[in-house]
Each structure stands twice: as C-alpha cells, then as structure tokens.
Amino acid sequence: MAILGSVIKGFLELRDKLAPDTNPVEAQKKVFKNLLGTAKDTDFGRHYNFETILSSKQPLKLFKDSVPFFDYNKINEEWWAKLHDGETDVTWPGTPDYFALSSGTTGKTSKRIPVTNEMLDAIRDAGIKQVYALSNFDLPIDFFEKGILMLGSSTDLNTKDGHKEGEISGISASNIPTWFQGFYKPGEEIAQIDDWDERVQKIAEEAPNWDIGALSGIPSWMELMLQKVISYHNLNHIHEIWPNFQVYTSGGVAFGPYEKSFNSLLGKPVTVIDTYLASEGFIAFQARPETDAMQLVTDGGIYFEFVPFKPEYINQDGSIINNAPSLSLEEVETGQDYILIISTVSGAWRYLIGDTIEFTNVEKAEIKITGRTKFFLNTVGSQLSVNKLDDAVQHLEMTFDIKIPEYTLCAKRVDGEFYHCWYLGTENEKDNLTLANALDEHLKGANNNYKVARSKALKGVKVKTLLPSVFHEWNGMNKKKGGQVKMERVMGEDKFAEWEEFVQK
To answer: Which residues form the GH3 middle domain (predicted)?
Structure first.
C-alpha cells in the first residue's frame, strides 16, 4: 500500500470536509475593502480618493464612478511606467520584485505586468486550494505519490533594474513551495533551459526516469512535448512510458479544440482539469468533476467586475467604452457573456484582462472562458466569439472524423466582398470546399447574427488546410514558442496579410 499517498489523500479529504464553504459574494466584498485599504496611500489611491471611497455609504458605486477602466497600454503609460523609473508606492505599496512578460496573442512587444509578493502568495494559495479540490475527483491513493510535470516557460528569469522578469509560469515555478519540490518535474536544472526545443529534448531524454502522475501546461505545447517523448522512445502512446499518468491540468485556452488530438497520444483516458492562470493572477480552477467549468478564486487577491459583452460596449480595438456598465458578482446571471475586469494585489485597477467569460453556476461562482475581446469577429455583423468558433471546429472534427488542434481566420475583403477566410491546422486530408460548406451551414444554424450577416454583407466562407506545425512555427518566428503562448484565433486584415505571407513562404 502506498503509505505516503494514503496519508496525503486522507489529509485532503479531511481538510475538504472540515473547511467551511466560502460565500463568493461576501468574500469579494472583503477583498474589495482590503485592496482599497492597502492601496489608499499610494499615488493611485490618493489620486482616486480611495479613503473617501471607503468611508462612503456606497463605496463600490463610488469606486466605479471615480476610477475608469484600464487596459494594459493605458495603465502602463499613466502609472506602471513610473515603476521602471524607480518610483515606489505607485499603484500598490512598495515596488514589485517581479514583472511578468506577456505579449499575449496580439501584441508585438512584451507587456511588463507587475507581480508583487502579495500576488505570489495569492497564486500559491489558489494552487493549494486546487490541490485540496483533488479530493473531489476520486483519484487512487498512489496518484498522490507520483511526479507532476509542469510544462511552462523557463525559470531562468532575467534580472533588470533590481527586479526579475519572465513569463508568469516561470515566475510561479521558480517560487514553488519546498514541500512540493520532491514531486515537481522536470526539476530545476531542466526548467531553467531557455530554449524551448532544447528543454523538450532534455525532457524526452529523462522521461524514463520519472513516474509521472500528472501533467500541467497549455494544450498546444503539451501535445508537442508528448509527441517528442513518444517519437524519441519509439512508443505507440505516452502511457507506455508513463503508465501512471492520470491527470492533465490544462490552462491558458479552451481545451475543447485540442481534445481529439490530445487523446490520440494516450493509451487510456485521463482526468482533465481546467485552470485559469493569467499573467495578472490565478483567476479560477475546476473544483469538482461534475462540471468542466472553473470556480473563481473569490477570496484571494483579486476583485472581479463583469461588463456585459455586447457590441455597443466594445471599441474596434477590443477595448470597452468608458461608460460601459459593470456588474458585481451578486448581479450576474447565466447565459450571458461578460468582459472580465479585475483589481488586484499587484496594483491593477479596473483592468481589462482581455478575456470574456460566461457563468455556468452563479451561486458557486463557476465560469467558462468564452473568448477574447480582440477575437470577437463582428466585422460584418456576424457576432462570433471564440467559443462559437471552437464549437464550429469541433463540429468539423466530429462530422468528418478528423483532428483540427489549431485554426485562425479573418473577415477579409476578396474582390471587394467580405469572406470569412479560415486556415485549419490538420494532418488529415479533406476537400477545402466541403469543409467550408460544413462550417458555413453549422454557423448559420448555431448563430442567428451570422445567418443574417450571410444574407447581407458576408459573401461566403473560404478554407485552407495546413499542417499544425505551421502554426507552431508562426509562434516561434514571433519569439513566442512554448510557455504561456496561445495562437490568435481571429486576426485583423494587416496581421492576416503577414500570416498569409508566412504561410506562402
């Protein structure tokens, strides 16, 4: 019998039974007061009169009326840039020890997002809560003795102006608790390798020496790593070398488009658990097996607001209008897409993180990521969010028994007419016209706005298929290979022209 595993599982189950249930709404009220109370003497807090807000009869309403929305460019230009000039107490007390570098899926240069010690504590606490939640998933005792391979960015962080910089996955991995280090793979030495291909090669070489029970990372790069291990050791599937692999913790993007191609690398089913770790903080994680939705971390270092995701509230660049209404957790409802707004212990205030979400269970504060504000395809009134595009691609996979782990598209003018031009990443051969017609018919049936657009300004659908590796090389060319990198699903015409030029080469 696995003694250690039995002890760990027993502790988790006991802790889960004894721990009081968190009331998400009350937890958020407490977080809100703590955030403003801590930051009231910063430059930002004084500028927006946090002390007055806290002493008012309706502090949240006054907060919303007083503090504007910020995207990265706005808060960086007006506030965070001062941190790089050596100023302190700007939007949060003191100065951050870390900056998370993130070019996202659309930016050409890296964002530099402050990560305070309070945020690292919040991320660590959320990670521990997720470990506790594993007791809900009926995993065998010996699972809790196996290694956990975390495939993120390099932990070899750059030192600049007295702080360290790197992707959030690398910053988090470089600060893992001491008690966890015995389970953590690939280990400190390999994790510090900056070159993605070299790091994956080392993982493949060391793979037989590890007894892996869980994997964690973004699906696209996880698939490439698994393919490398399988090919390096001439295997049929990954369970031939890691027979105890039972849990995959996905994150960064919706797992749905990758499900079929990911499962083809396995010898048996595994439990997939979704997480939502962004450069700005640990947002949510899947806490129970009855749903694939994720529970917001409402008692950590983040206060959430939700702007209804409607075209009249969104500017062409994906930002939101100044007077867009924002809702608190007690005001939201299911069946509505919302733009996620956060205020955090890293000094982000009413910050547009760029994601859209939908509540599946308001009482439990459970959500699904539905897309990106910049990936909202509405050039000719089609009103397609990423989750609707993902559903359409999964429809193709099921209809034609093919795998399409990657895709991108653009509403592009062709001879003066608008077409939705798709590039599908697949190793399967299928007639492009057949795929285009199937996509078109599915979206007409699933989305009335798209159906109306097709009868007016949207002339039709065009499809081209490519090997998935082309998408990976595109990310590599843009110095975005591995780690937290995600392929942009919807491109503007200028970016799409660069993409098509790359494809032709």
So the answer is: 297-363
